[in-house]
Amino acid sequence: MVTVAVDTGGADLGPAEVAAGATAAAAGGAIEVLLYGPAAEIGEVGPGVTVIDAPVSIAKASDPAHAVRSTPDASIVRAAKAVANGDAQALVSGGSTGSALAAGLFNVRRDRGIYRPALALPLPMLDGPPVLLLDVGANVNCRPEHLVQFAHMGSAFAHAVLGREHPRVALLSNGEEPNKGTPDLVFVYEQLVGSAGTGLNFVGNIEGTQITDGVADVVVMDGFIGNITLKLIEGVSDRTLRGVQDAARSSPRAKLGGWLLAPAMRRLRDDVDPEQPGGAYLLGLRRLGVVAHGRFTRRGFQRAIEVAAHGVEEDVISAMRSALAAAGALRTPAAGGEEEDGD
Question: For a surface tag, which of 54, 64, 297, 307 has the fewest beta carbons within 10 Å of its beta carbon?
């Protein structure tokens, strides 16, 4: 039995929608959910779900770190403390990345030897398995050693959770050549090439146009570029689908064609459904976290809870730690200079 602590704050459709997803996730009997949020808004839940009344939400706080420090009774803080205390093995946030990251850092804490946590998102592909992108927003500024760790963390995660036998890891740059990119990216490239003996399957640099070409299973970047890349892909995909729908309604003949294409279009929407991966994984803490998108329906929250539980079952935290240790990429106390969590 895996216990997952879930914060309902930040969900656009409200706590009851998160609760419905939690009830569905717990229905199989293998997952227990501790649901933190306003009990009056959550309503009835099914077997396996325990509601902890936590009506205070900091999901919209402009300064998440300050809000976490100053609001110990906030739902996300109480959920993170449940994970830190061992009452749950994984954390799921209902849609607030900033508060989830801050609560995780202050309570669950970074894993031993980790410089910075990273947000890793499996990006759905049309004609193949998803591609894991990291970091997609946890860190605006990254040093080379952070990116090196992201590569090993992403590889271990892709193997343990996504089922890739030898995950192909690439570095996002403005060209495939080893000397392309900033001096930091060139240095990271050299470090990752030198990690070949550790089992890391580094395939080199790729450009933005290659992310969706299936040439890599894991694509590494800093959080600033990663967040822009992700939002651009989401925006273009959404606008393309809406453009096809608009064209299918533009004339009687187009409507007939749209009717004939409807089953294929539904399959296409399912293939690129952002709810299917369950959200972004918060990697680098002592326990696994999953940040769902605020606009998710109950199906998306169900998936977020299920993938969090699956990560616990596969012991992905230990897998990442072992991969980093084998590569000599763990931070040592002698490294110094790194800020404490949340500072």
Answer: 297
Residues 86, 190: one domain?
Answer: no
How far does the chain reach from its first CA to its final CA, in angstroms? 35
> Is the Cβ–Cβ distance between 218 and 167 less than 8 Å?
yes
- Per-residue pLDDT of 232-265, as tens digits, reads 877 776 776 677 667 777 787 766 676 666 665 5
Burial class of 171 by CB neighbour count within 10 A (0 to 12, 13 to 18, 19+): buried
> How many Å apart are CA 338 and CA 206, to the nearest integer?
30
| Strand 168-172, strand 90-93: pairing | unpaired
Closest by Cα among 163, 156, 121 to 138: 121
Read off the amino acid at residue 331: R
Q: Does some domain include residue 341? A: no
CA atoms within 13 A on the CB side of 21: 30
276 inside domain: no
pTM: 0.84
CATH number, domain containing residue 160: 3.40.718.10
Beta bridge partners of 281: 120, 290
Task: List, for residues 10-69, the tens digit of each pLDDT value.
Answer: 899 999 999 999 999 999 899 999 999 999 999 899 999 999 999 999 988 889 999 999
The range of the structural domain enclosing residue 249 comes to 125-271
